[in-house]
Design brief:
The chain has 19 helices and 19 strands. It is of the alpha+beta class and 659 residues long. The protein folds into three domains: 281 residues, Phosphoenolpyruvate Carboxykinase, domain 3, CATH 3.90.228.10; 234 residues, Phosphoenolpyruvate Carboxykinase, domain 3; 87 residues, no CATH class. The protein is globular. GO terms for molecular function: NAD+ poly-ADP-ribosyltransferase activity; NAD+-protein mono-ADP-ribosyltransferase activity; zinc ion binding.
């Protein structure tokens, strides 16, 4: 039944055919099945996670892989219904063969197709290890092989065809991909609840005993899928695409003792052979829910134009996929400030290093804000903006530089990049040649790939931008209070972290920058214009922009980065000590002017002091320190240079945009 043993499409008419006595030997199993799938982001982290508690993440599958699931769904579709499909109008009870409203040609009838909206891959080391352990135990218990599916399950062809998306299946234990229909939030909550499928049988009944019911056909799985009427996921359904190890099958149309037979060791699972083949397991470890597929139903009477729009429009989750509260309804309310663990912090440090800050800075902490109220405000603003812009804004801005920075660190580093000979492939290499990304280990790389760059709606000019602030201002913005500019009607954001940090003050060498999601909207040159949502204030020599955004409702302060500079801290200490130095007149009668007195103000201090005046908006009394240069017996050349520099600083303050 494995990929090597079948290439023939399953015949829909044979859906109820029982398994035959043909067997597959354990000797035919694929070597290396116990490792993580090659296409997983975590496939290379086994050694790093062995002593770190493993990994438990969800990632968006690339849009380029959506067709694999679309084809698998289409090939498994059967135009039949059963009494398990609820009446769409809520007026019909359960009837053998299904209610009239669900029949082909009914109102609204049976869905004629299902369209994939989004695909999420689940990577859990604990669940995968348990799954592999259970599979090995079944192999050991069935050394002579097991009864194979005949015909092969309907998902088999596509699973075997797209091995870059579906890992090879083990024919020796009837390993297959199968569907499990459910609600979107329930599917998402798998990540928070150890990925356990509900084994109570409350939604499916107990025709074959209490267990996890899956189907080879999307038509059957869809009977159990539910949307969220009136909610965010109204019209959106979910199906889990699971790896299932079935082992020895109990093929039957009805068996109330099926679960007991499996527990007794007579079988490993049940294959129900009625209108659809239903696959039932009684141990959660026999199932690995690898993908969550979100989709929409299409009925025969649906306007083709509307269906076409739905296909083209990217679907966005209500809550970011990487959030701890991904499965929580916003109406339930939540607020958490979550400090990124080691791998996430390492990735953020590389992002900071990539900015090549002067002076260089070390990441002290990186905190992610999960606030349902602020996010709800952001989502509502996004929906209103999308409705206002509609399809008129096809003139996208070029790719946001911060998004470029993020994406540059999401590609696996080339292992030859830093070798003496370098990479022979050069620019054609499919791996990254980013010098800062080369510092990332596999765990940090996987952590970075969880960041939500694929959730941005460029049609609305949504992107990540830096917001510089003090620690007090960081608290304000985390509560939704976005500080307005002193002279312009809006808030300034930056694509350059270096420029952003120049616009804020620090303490003890520490500065704060918030990485915000910003819904820029429609660009313009006059922010007082009602049709303008943002304007570009300035573009630096590297092309990075400073923008002014009018409405703070379109801002979500997602990551707060606290950054430390030893150089800044030393300068601050030096300035504090200088504040205690007496005036030039007082110094005349003190030891400070004595030849015996050491000079506490070195050339290094002078350079650092001047740099901090240039790079921050903390403006000290320049004349006071010009006088102090003389008081501290500094060389005339220093004093002349200082006077010229300080004069230039005073003259250039208004034209530089500093306030």
């Amino acid at each position: 039944m494995g990929c090597a043993s079948s290439s023939t499409a399953a015949d829909p008419k044979a859906a109820s055919a029982p398994a035959t006595e043909s067997t597959t030997s354990a000797a035919t199993r694929n070597p290396g099945d116990d490792g993580y799938p090659e296409y997983w982001y975590h496939n290379k982290t086994a050694d790093q996670t062995a002593n770190a508690g493993g990994f438990d993440d969800m990632f968006y599958a690339p849009d380029s892989e959506h067709h694999c699931f679309q084809e698998m769904i289409e090939e498994s579709y059967v135009p039949k219904t059963t009494q398990d499909r609820p009446c769409p109008k809520g007026t019909c009870g359960k009837k053998p063969g299904g209610c009239p409203c669900n029949q082909p040609g009914g109102d609204p009838g049976l869905p004629v197709s299902f369209h994939v909206q989004r695909v999420i891959r689940v990577e859990s080391s604990e669940l995968w290890d348990r799954y592999q352990k259970k599979k090995r135990s079944i192999i050991e218990a069935r050394p002579g092989g097991v009864e194979a599916f005949d015909p092969p399950v309907k998902t088999n062809n596509k699973a075997c065809e797209y091995t870059g998306t579906f890992a090879p299946l083990d024919a020796s234990v009837n390993e297959v991909y199968a569907f499990h229909g459910t609600q979107v939030r329930f599917a998402l909550s798998i990540a928070e609840n150890a990925f356990r499928i509900d084994l109570a049988g409350s939604s499916t009944g107990t025709l074959y005993g209490r267990g996890a019911y899956l189907g080879e056909s999307i038509s059957k799985a869809d009977e159990y899928a539910k949307d969220e009427p009136g909610g965010y996921y109204d019209g959106v359904f979910a199906v889990l695409v699971c790896r299932v190890v079935m082992g020895k099958l109990n093929s039957t149309s009805f068996d109330s003792k099926a679960a007991e037979k499996v527990k007794a060791g007579q079988f490993d699972s049940t294959c129900g052979t009625r209108v659809f083949r239903e696959l039932v397991i009684y141990d959660a470890d026999q199932c690995y829910p690898e993908y969550v597929v979100l989709y929409k139903r299409k009925y025969a009477k649906d306007p083709e134009e509307e269906v076409s729009k739905t296909r083209k429009r990217r679907f966005f989750m209500q809550v970011p996929l990487h959030w701890r509260n991904v499965a929580t309804d916003l109406a339930a309310g939540f607020r958490e400030e979550i400090e990124l663990p080691g791998p996430g912090t390492s990735w953020m440090q590389c992002l900071v290093n990539q900015a090549q800050l002067q002076p260089s800075r070390t990441l002290v902490s990186a905190i992610r804000l999960e606030d349902s109220q602020l996010w709800q405000r952001y989502v509502q603003f996004k929906a209103a903006l999308r409705s206002r812009i509609a399809d008129q804004s096809e003139d996208h801005l070029r790719l946001n530089f911060v998004e470029k920075d993020l994406r540059a660190l999401m590609k696996r580093p080339c292992k030859f990049f830093r070798t003496p000979r370098g990479c022979k492939s050069g620019d054609k290499c499919r791996f990254s040649h980013n010098e800062f990304g080369a510092d990332l280990d596999d765990l940090s790389l996987a952590a970075g790939r969880r960041l939500p760059v694929d959730e941005l709606d460029r049609r609305l000019h949504e992107g990540f931008l830096w917001y510089p602030c003090t620690e007090a201002e960081a608290i304000d913005i985390s509560q939704g209070n976005v500080k307005k500019d002193e002279t312009l009607p809006g808030t300034r954001f930056y694509e350059s972290l270096q420029t952003a940090l120049k616009r804020t003050t620090g303490k003890d060498g520490v500065k704060v920058a918030v990485l915000c999601r910003v819904m820029c909207g429609l660009p313009g040159v006059d922010v007082t214009d009602d049709d303008t949502d943002f304007m570009i204030i300035e573009t630096d020599e590297s092309g990075r922009r400073e923008v002014l955004v009018k409405d703070g409702s379109g801002v979500y302060p997602e990551y707060r980065l606290t950054l430390h500079s030893s150089e800044d801290e030393e300068t601050e200490k030096m300035i504090d000590s200088m504040d205690k130095v007496p005036t030039g007149a007082e110094c005349a009668s003190t030891m400070m002017l004595s030849k015996r007195a050491p000079n506490p103000f070195t050339e290094t201090h002078a350079t650092i002091f001047y740099n901090i005046l240039q790079d921050t908006v903390v403006y000290y009394n320049v004349r006071k320190y010009s006088t102090m240069y003389s008081a501290l017996r500094l060389p005339r050349s220093w004093h002349g240079a200082w006077s010229a520099q300080s004069h230039g600083l005073r003259q250039g303050r208004s034209s530089s945009g500093y306030r």
